[in-house]
Specification:
Oligomer: heterodimer
Helix content of chain A: over 70%
Radius of gyration of chain B: 18 Å
Strand order of the largest sheet of chain A: 1-2
Shape of chain B: globular
Strand order of the largest sheet of chain B: 6-7-8-3-9-10
Structural class of chain B: alpha/beta
Shape of chain A: globular
Number of helices of chain B: 7
Largest interface: A-B, 15 and 19 residues
Order of helices and strands of chain A: HHHHHHHEEHHHHHHHHHHH
Chain lengths: 453, 254
């Protein structure tokens, strides 16, 4: 009974931090999205920066979280650090979503607004409403992604460990103490909580797309917020540089760690590729489900979001008795990877010709190969682009549980030991892999596929 | 019956004087002059891509000439003006607002409160034949009805000049014809604040049906190829021999 109450409170604490992280993410998204849509210079600087940032795994932000927030704000630093880490697992796709919505706002609507409206009404009734669909869908995805990484934002380890009160740390601690009853209660409460949250709150938000509250405040924020965000980025960068100057970094250790990270990334690469293939198949299957009956779209989206919010620490105890090693790591990784592919592929259903297949009774193989896959390909390519980063970052929480060697577990152990050389090296290697492959491979594939989209 | 107007001599309501405009290397205008008098309905005709719409958008204040000037009552048009409304080819209604609020929103932008704006909007919706559809969302309306809402929106701000950028080209022929007839009647019978219209079209018979004057532009860089006064009583009859004579005459220039 007691553990039930404690779990419930812990879940509320977790949700409160996530809500705060989400509000900050949305604020940053409108400030930067609007700045990028308005100014080519801002676009030229911010797009590559954000691209790199979204590829940095959550553990890569630990030093910032600990040495900036915790050491500069001793009292509430740990809480701030957790919100910051949640932000880093939420913000990027929301920023890109808002930016793209603003960028693709039809010109004639802007002209209509210039002719008939003033700036205040333009932003409140034209600009913001055009971004809402993208905003809320991305927010719902980010919420799931942040929950997947919940243990990483509530148990911050870098030599020393900081435990914050929340559902992620509660379950981890219960397992460490061997208190299985509490752990299972915590997992059950969290899963039920997520189902309830998506069924009650997110479903409503996604079907109604409510206007942002305090719209006048957002208008002012969109115009000037970017400067606040730039200042915050510069401040964080400066404080982080202060830390790096005092950190026990050594070129030799770093180079050795880069070499080892690169070697280990080969094992991780195989896992990432396997999990991406699986999620592409899952994506196609769900798309077919929705093509058959479009009213299922929101329900399928919500189901995928709930399933992909399950962090490895929740799945692991349920699965470890049956599967081990490579299979286990794939299953633990699947939520993080499947999320982006499935949700991107899902959006393809509108482009899948439905009546054609029905009128000519095309089904089975023929349907899959000549209609469904080609129609969904541009979306699958977008999905792969985001999944690629998501899966690599997911490794850092999935691999350690399955106790397999790879870049993810190497990074997690480096963080655990407080070995900053190994941590920085592995983060750099992972970020480089993600960014380089995005540029060299996925974007080309995407361009190829979008020729007939 | 054909009468060449000396360009840019007298000061009209809208004066286009020596306007140049290029998009990159594509020169759309290399010095064009055109004058629109108060009370006219001017149809701009010409091959597609010749810059008819660009000219219209400069009159609306949505685009600036690279050189030269567009004037309204002698004042350069540098941004959209209250006296001039524009109707787009597509209705450009906000999907999340009802028909009523789509019409009311520009009135709110001009300082009315929502209650008053909705009352005015209601009047204009019924004026274009849409009473009973105030609470419908654009998606629930047909293309013709959506364009009627857009017309109500343009009229509700009570402009003096209405610019029309192929506003009927996306509609089915019957709907287009009835909207054309209604608009001409509203203008001719002084039922609306609009006294002057400029219409971009590529349909010669639409020009002869609606306009008091047809201006034919050449291909890029566009010049005025012909400027024809259409001297026919309203409402015009497409079957009359004079009507056909004007159509034939304009076809020789297009």
């Amino acid at each position: 009974m007691e553990s039930l109450v404690v779990s419930f409170l812990a879940l509320l604490a977790t949700y409160a931090r996530m809500a705060l992280g989400l509000v900050v993410s949305i604020a940053v998204a409108y400030a930067l999205g609007y700045a990028m849509a308005k100014s080519r210079r801002a676009e030229a600087v911010l797009l590559p920066f954000l691209d790199v940032m979204q590829s940095v795994p959550i553990l890569g932000f630990f030093p910032v979280a600990l040495f900036v927030f915790v050491s500069f704000f001793p009292r509430i630093g740990a809480e701030l650090a957790a919100v910051f880490l949640i932000f880093t697992s939420m913000a990027w796709n929301i920023i890109f979503g808002v930016y793209q919505a603003l960028k693709t706002l039809p010109r004639e609507y802007l002209e209509m607004a210039r002719l008939y409206l003033n700036e205040r009404l333009e932003i409140a009734h034209v600009v913001i409403p055009f971004t809402l669909r993208s905003l809320y869908y991305n927010a719902a995805i980010s919420w799931a992604n942040a929950f997947f990484f919940i243990t990483a934002s509530e148990v911050i380890t870098l030599g020393t460990e900081i435990h914050l009160f929340g559902i992620g740390s509660l379950v981890v601690k219960a397992f460490e103490d061997g208190d299985l009853a509490t752990a299972y209660v915590g997992i059950a409460v969290a899963l039920l909580g997520n189902v309830a949250l998506y069924a009650l709150v997110w479903r409503r938000v996604l079907t109604r797309l409510p206007q942002l509250p305090f719209v006048d405040l957002w208008r002012v924020w969109m115009k000037y917020g970017a400067y606040v965000v730039y200042a915050a980025i510069l401040l964080l960068a400066y404080l982080f540089a202060e830390y790096v100057a005092t950190a026990p970094l050594s070129a030799g250790d770093f180079a050795a760690a880069v070499a080892e990270s690169t070697y280990l990334s080969l094992f991780s690469l195989a896992r990432v590729l396997a999990v991406i293939l699986i999620s592409a198949a899952v994506g196609l299957a769900t798309t077919a489900l929705v093509v058959e009956k479009p009213s299922r779209e929101v329900a399928v989206f919500l189901a995928v979001a709930v399933l992909s919010s399950i962090p490895p620490v929740f799945l692991y105890p349920l699965l470890a008795a049956f599967i081990k090693g490579e299979i286990l790591v794939l299953v633990l990784l699947l939520p993080a990877a499947a999320l982006y592919t499935v949700i991107n592929t899902l959006a393809a259903w509108r482009d899948v010709p439905r009546d054609l297949a029905k009128a000519y009774q095309i089904s089975g193989w023929l349907y899959l190969w000549h209609i469904l896959i080609p129609a969904a390909l541009p979306y699958i390519a977008t999905g792969l682009l985001t999944t690629w980063g998501g899966a690599w970052n997911g490794l850092v929480v999935a691999e350690p549980f399955a106790d397999v060697s790879g870049l993810g577990s190497y990074m997690a152990h480096a963080a655990g030991r407080g070995d900053v050389n190994a941590l920085f090296a592995s983060v750099a290697v992972m970020t480089a892999i993600v960014v380089a492959t995005n540029r060299l491979l996925w974007r080309r594939l995407y361009r190829l596929a979008s020729q007939w989209a | 019956m054909e009468e060449a107007l000396p360009p840019g001599v007298a000061m009209g309501l809208i004066d286009v004087v020596g306007v140049k405009k290029a998009y990159g290397r594509v020169v759309v205008f290399n010095g064009i002059d055109l004058s629109v008098e108060q009370g006219e309905v001017v149809a701009l005709l010409g091959p597609s891509g010749c810059g008819k719409s660009t000219l219209l958008r400069m009159m609306a204040g949505l685009e600036k000439p690279d050189a030269g000037v567009v004037k309204f009552r002698g004042e350069p048009v540098v941004k959209p003006r209250r006296e001039i409304a524009l109707m787009f080819q597509s209705p450009t209604l906000l999907p999340w607002k009802t028909a009523l609020d789509n019409v009311a929103l520009p009135l709110v932008a001009r300082g009315m409160d929502w209650k008053e704006a909705r009352e005015v909007a209601q009047r204009y919706l019924s004026f274009v034949g849409l009473s009973g559809f105030e609470d419908a969302y654009p998606k629930q309306l047909s293309g013709g009805m959506q364009q009627r809402v857009a017309l109500a929106r343009a009229l509700a701000v009570e402009p003096e000049v209405l610019l029309l950028d192929e506003p009927f080209s996306a509609l089915d022929p019957l709907t287009a014809e009835s909207l054309r007839a209604e608009l001409v009647k509203m203008w001719h019978d002084n039922l609306i604040s609009v006294h002057t219209m400029v219409l971009v079209t590529h349909a010669v018979d639409e020009a002869v049906y609606m306009a008091t004057r047809a201006v034919v532009l050449t291909t890029r860089p566009a010049k005025v190829a012909a400027d024809v006064r259409i001297d026919l009583p309203y409402p015009r009859n497409r079957r009359s021999p004079q009507f056909e004579k004007y159509v034939d005459l304009l076809y020789t220039y297009v």
